[in-house]
Design brief:
Oligomer: single chain
Radius of gyration: 16 Å
Distance between the termini: 55 Å
Order of helices and strands: HHHHHHHH
Helix content: over 70%
Number of helices: 8
C-alpha cells in the first residue's frame, strides 16, 4: 500500500478532533517547521485578539495590537517548542523512546484547536466587533489540553499518569503567562 501524505488542513483539524489517530498517520510525514508554524500562528492570533480587546475598550492603542500579535508569534515560535523540549526531557527521563523533534512537533501540533479558534475569533472580532480573546482565545488554549494529554499519552506508550499532570501544568502555565501579558 502506498504511503499517502495527509494534507496540512486535515492534519490541523485531525489534531483537534482525533489527535491519537492523527499522530499515528501524519506525524512522521509532517515537517517540524509546519508544526511550529501552527503554534506560532495560533498564539499570534490569541495574543492579537487580546490586543484588539484592549484596544476596543480604550485601554491600549492600535500599536499594542500589532505588538501583541508579534509577541504571540514569538511565544508560539520559541516558548511552545521550548516547553515541548522540556516535555521531551521529562519523557526521556521516564524511559521514553521518542525523538526530540517528534515530541516537539507533536506538542506544537496540539495547538491546532487554538489555531482554529483563533481564526474564527479574529473573524468575529473584526466582522462583528466582539471582544473575543476569552470566548475564542482561551477556549482554543483549553481545547489544546485534551489533544496534549492524548499526544503525551501516545508518546509515553499509554501512560496517562504522566500525560495528564504534564498537560495540565503546561495548560495552566500558558494561561497564567497570557494573563500576565494582558495585565501589562
Amino acid at each position: 500500500m502506498e504511503n499517502i501524505k495527509p494534507s496540512l488542513v486535515r492534519t490541523i483539524f485531525g489534531m483537534m478532533i482525533n489527535p491519537g489517530g492523527t499522530l499515528k498517520n501524519s506525524l512522521l510525514t509532517t515537517r517540524w517547521y509546519f508544526s511550529v508554524a501552527v503554534s506560532a500562528v495560533a498564539f499570534s492570533l490569541f495574543f492579537g485578539q487580546t490586543g484588539l480587546d484592549l484596544y476596543k475598550t480604550g485601554q491600549k492603542g492600535l500599536e499594542f495590537v500589532l505588538l501583541a500579535s508579534a509577541i504571540g508569534l514569538a511565544y508560539g515560535l520559541l516558548v511552545i517548542p521550548l516547553i515541548g523540549f522540556f516535555i521531551w526531557t521529562v519523557l526521556k527521563l521516564s524511559k521514553g523512546e521518542r525523538k526530540m523533534r517528534e515530541t516537539v512537533s507533536a506538542f506544537c501540533l496540539s495547538y491546532s484547536g487554538a489555531l482554529i479558534y483563533g481564526t474564527i475569533g479574529l473573524g468575529f472580532s473584526l466582522a462583528l466587533g466582539w471582544k473575543t480573546s476569552v470566548a475564542f482565545g482561551v477556549t482554543g488554549v483549553l481545547w489544546a489540553i485534551g489533544p496534549m494529554i492524548i499526544t503525551i499519552r501516545e508518546l509515553t506508550s499509554g501512560r496517562s499518569a504522566l500525560s495528564i499532570p504534564i498537560a495540565t501544568t503546561v495548560g495552566v502555565a500558558v494561561l497564567i503567562s497570557w494573563s500576565i501579558f494582558g495585565n501589562i
